[in-house]
Amino acid sequence: MQLMVKVFALLQILLVALFPAAHALRRDEFPPEFVFGASTSAYQVEGAANEDGRKPSIWDTFAHATYVNENVGDGDVACDHYHKYKEDVQLMADMGLEAYRFSISWSRLIPGIQPHVTLLHFDLPQTLEDEYEGWLSRRVVEDFTAYADVCFREFGDRVKHWTTVNEANAYAIFGYDVGISPPRRCSPSSLFNCSKGNSSTEPYLAAHHILLAHASAARMYRKKYQAMQHGIIGLNIISFGYLPKTNSTEDVRAAQRARDFNIGWFMDPITFGDYPDTMRKNAGSRLPSFTKKESNLIRNSIDFLGVNFYFSFYVKNNPGNLQNEDRDFIADIAMETERVRREDTAPDEVPITPDIFLGVLHTIKKAYGNIPIYIHENGQQTPHNSSLNDRSRVKFLQGYIGSLVDALRSGLNIKGYFVWSFMDAFELVGGFEISYGLYYIDMNDPNLRRQPKLSAEWYSNFLKGKPMDSKIKEIEKNVLSHDTQLHNAT
Ligand code: FCB
């Protein structure tokens, strides 16, 4: 362990020496076609929950119940983006954002900045959950494809980047294994008190149907629209850094297994037509099988992969987890994890680990080839009413965007980077108490005024090629007045 710590310390020193100093980061170090944007998702920012015929999604049901995130609020009004979208797009244009990643609210159905659109960002219509248990039923494949068809037909003339499902893996794990998010299903043995569910089987089944629904929608896009609309379509997953806790063969294998269960779960079927062997070995028949036809449908069903990145873990082998008969998805990985922390990051913030992030991207390239990748989400978490002077978010962005310069130089096929999130949103874990936004919104302000944080100014200066140092210093001098404004507003 001591040795690992030393190796990491050394690595950090090397990285600091190798990476261009943060203040020297320039937009023109990236190819012109590389895209820089920021992200949101429908339920997290739109509000207008009962307007224009919108029906509830599983997130409305979840947020209105009191079981998990009591007191954290809901997305009924959120940032009122539904009404303020013009003002917000103006802010994006002023900031110099080149792209905006958002999602369409399936249960709502209905120039200048490229829209990167996600079809489903966790908010399945409640009616499909009630009617046939949503992702647990194969019927969702047909319904999702029909929904996607409407979106391609109506918006495909303007949308050139489609993502079918956001964080397909997190959706299955948090909704069906741990039960921390909707549809809040888990076994009675889970820490969360779910009224129904089976953590041994349902995460696998839900993910299986997500893969089939994704592939079916992608096939429809390619057959019916792509030649005419000239867009591309992909799937999004959340990636984690997994580092073996020791260099023993067992821990190294356990870390690889963790990657298989994390990324391989979706990328093995998409690349090779079947789930990873490690998953089959540990989950057995609980992991559904593909017919030849399904496997052909899924193989090569993405034009790009959307990758989100926040946290990393040290992995220790733990075969004991496999002894339990009705073990859940996480136990099937047969590991113990410990969160990677960094001394320069506060405990309630996301550790800044661009070195590990680069490792994840190289691992994906090695395992699945040099497919185009969009970093769809990456961002720093801070307590909501902290400060407009969000230095840790600036440091975070400098670190990660800086690492992308290196990623491109070493031949990784990264096509774009989106900060999560454009503005403070209703966070899926933590509600309005934590925030990731470049813009601050006081949720008690009736006008929900958007106020730029230091990070918004930093990103804007970076995008516009404005000199950074003097600006940052100038802004830092104003920290006091920024903070005073914030306190007056709250
Ligand atoms: C991701 C979600 C996104 C957001 C961030 C913080 O897992 O995709 O909606 O809440 O976490």
TrEMBL record:
GO BP term, example: carbohydrate metabolic process
InterPro entries: GH (IPR017853), GH_1_N_CS (IPR033132), Glyco_hydro_1 (IPR001360)
UniProt entry keywords in alphabetical sequence: Glycosidase, Hydrolase, Signal
Family: Belongs to the glycosyl hydrolase 1 family.
PANTHER family registered for this protein in UniProt: GLYCOSIDE HYDROLASE FAMILY 1 PROTEIN (PTHR10353:SF208), GLYCOSYL HYDROLASE (PTHR10353)
Protein's UniProt name: Beta-glucosidase
SUPFAM superfamilies linked: (Trans)glycosidases
Origin: domain of life: Eukaryota
